[in-house]
Amino acid sequence: MSEMKKGLIVKACCLAALAVVLMGLLAGIACDSSTDSGKLKVVATILPLADFVKNVGGGMVEVTTLMSAGDSPHTWEPSPGQVKTIADARLMVINGAGLEFWMGKVIEAAASPDLVVVDTSVFPDMEGLLLTADEDGLGNDSEHGVNPHIWLDPLLAQQQVEAIAQALIMVDPGNKDRYLENATAFVAELESLDEEIRDATESFSIREFIAFHPAWTYFARRYGLVEAAVIEETPGRDSSAHKKEVIDLARALGIRAIFAEPQFNPQAAQSIADEVGAEVLFLDPMGSPDLPDRDSYIDLMRYNVEQMRLAMA
Ligand SMILES: [Zn+2]
Question: Whole-prediction pTM value?
Answer without folding.
Answer: 0.88
